[in-house]
Specification:
Number of helices: 13
Strand content: 15-25%
Shape: globular
CATH class of the largest domain: Alpha Beta
Low-confidence stretches: none
Radius of gyration: 24 Å
Structural class: alpha/beta
Number of strands: 18
Strand order of the largest sheet: 2-6-4-5-7
Mean pLDDT: 91
Distance between the termini: 41 Å
Number of domains: 2
CATH topology of the largest domain: Rossmann fold
Helix content: 25-40%
CATH superfamily of the largest domain: Nucleoside phosphorylase domain
């Protein structure tokens, strides 16, 4: 078949980051519009006279020196002389991010940002505007498979080799400029809407995960109070389905419709200018969910994510309702073994740890040694078997004792390990809900008292920690502990 494509877009050089972004946006709009136009025509019975094909925009920069930079940022550095390249998607969504990355690279290395058209095909599925409904009956009536006429997603373009550190570029490049290719980003953007019931543009840069709906209920209550009371920082509160409550300070009001059914991992967004608010996601139970959601949120390049949830206390000295601040992780979740070997240590990040400790002190009004009355620091063990208590206790107890673990859950190590893998600052603060090794389990009445007295305070600590982290400059928050010796220049 003949190939139907827009005219090629030759490489152009830019020293103005905003002009570079504008060219990316123009190429992307033209090429996705070309695919979309042919699909709409097909629903009207107009079959294209060839295979419809368009390509993602490409960005590349060149380094000619091994010279060091004076920047204190852990990103924006081209590690070796050569060519660096990445494909780009959704430029409107990533406008602020891309302009910042271009600005830092030009400041550190000079030269120019080159923008043009890549050789990576845009799949039909990723060229359509979000939420657009296509006349499926008309397409089915044509009896022509769509992949006979359009390119479809190719898993060879959507792997995590760059982030995993297993991609081996040719000598001299092109080296990867970003952790994620455009198809990989598009894949996750589509998945985020599916799993969370909200669109990628509604996500904020500070993300909290939980494994209990109680936390979501309390977060929604606090967020709606902020909207009613005219909070000076937060502008709107978005629920699954896109239902939005605006701040009374900005005129108030509601818009959209709540989701008819709660999605698998519902997300709620307390929005702030420049996406500096807080996103809260109920991931449910288990490491598979934890990996799935963090795989996808990572492409948005958040500034930090933390886990707030319940855990089993492993020390007899702990009380129900005590907090556990993870300083290390015993990875028994196994879902990341193929991507991040268990031999790789997952370090605690001082910036996040200090923020969580300070938040505990601020909310509980306890300081110094007094916080030890309600909080332990130590290793959190994350298991992939919710019924681990039913296995041979002598074998499990020995492993937990050797690791010095103080708590056990099913998500925290997965979230921390994926934060490490994707260079997203991470942390964990858990609340002891039972002590199965010591025969102390919640009874129905006890559980009600526990949830009523502890959930609100635990959530307030998490929100306070995110506000502390939000006040830190990027060069402090984005720890160099998360960067390798041949790192991508994009954060």
């Amino acid at each position: 078949m003949d190939i139907l494509s827009p005219p090629p877009a030759p490489l152009q050089r830019f020293t103005d980051p905003e002009a570079a972004w504008a060219e990316i946006a123009a190429i992307y709009a033209r090429n996705t519009g070309f695919i979309h136009q042919h699909l709409v025509a097909l629903t009207r019975g107009i079959v294209p006279q060839g295979r419809v094909r368009a390509f993602y925009p490409v960005v590349q920069v060149t380094s000619t020196s091994y010279g060091k930079t004076d920047s204190t940022l852990p990103y924006g550095y081209l590690h070796t002389p050569g060519l660096y390249r990445t494909t780009i998607t959704a430029p409107d969504l990533f406008r602020r991010y891309l302009i910042e990355q271009f600005t830092v690279i030009l400041k550190n290395h000079g030269g120019a940002i080159e923008v043009g058209e890549s050789e990576t095909r845009i799949p039909l599925h990723f060229a359509l505007p979000h939420g657009e409904r296509i006349d499926g009956e008309a397409l089915n009536a044509l009896a022509i498979p769509l992949r006979d006429l359009f390119d479809v997603p190719d898993l060879h373009d959507t792997d995590d080799e760059i982030a995993n550190g297993t991609f081996v570029p040719p000598l001299g490049g092109p080296y990867p400029l970003a952790q994620f290719t455009a198809p990989r980003v598009d894949y996750s953007l589509a998945r985020l809407a599916h799993y969370t019931g909200t669109t990628p543009d509604q996500f904020q840069n500070f993300v909290i995960f939980t494994n209990y709906a109680f936390y979501i209920d309390e977060f929604a209550r606090i967020a709606l109070e902020h909207m009613a009371n005219g909070h000076p920082d937060y502008d709107a509160f978005v629920e699954p389905g896109g239902f939005t409550t605006r701040n009374q300070r900005l005129g108030g009001g509601e818009s959209g419709v709540r989701a008819a059914r709660i999605p698998q991992m519902p997300a709620y967004h307390l929005q702030m200018a420049n996406n500096r608010g807080i996103t809260f996601v109920n991931i449910g139970v288990g490491p598979s969910n934890a990996k799935t959601i963090t795989d996808h949120i990572a492409v948005l390049r958040p500034h930090a994510w933390i886990m707030l949830g319940h855990c089993a206390g492993l020390r007899n000295s702990q009380e129900l309702g005590d907090y556990v601040l993870a300083h290390a992780y015993l990875r028994e979740d196994h879902v990341l073994d193929a991507d991040l070997p268990v031999t790789v240590p997952i370090p605690a990040l001082a910036e996040v740890q200090v923020a969580l400790e300070q938040a505990v002190a601020d909310v509980t009004h306890l300081e110094g040694i007094e916080t030890k009355r309600i909080m332990r620091t130590g290793t959190v063990a994350t298991f992939d078997n919710r019924n681990w208590e039913l296995r041979d206790q002598s074998e499990i107890s020995q492993r937990l004792s050797q690791s010095r673990a103080v708590a056990l859950d099913m998500e925290s190590a997965t979230i921390a390990a994926n934060g490490f893998r994707f260079r997203v600052p991470y942390g964990t603060l858990l609340c002891v809900s039972d002590k199965p090794l010591h025969g102390e389990l919640k009874l129905p009445g006890m559980a009600s008292d526990f949830y009523r007295t502890q959930v609100s305070r635990h959530l307030l600590i998490g929100l306070k920690a995110m506000e502390i982290l939000r006040g830190q400059p990027p060069e402090r928050l984005h720890s160099r502990k998360l960067r390798s010796f041949a790192e991508t220049a994009f954060q």
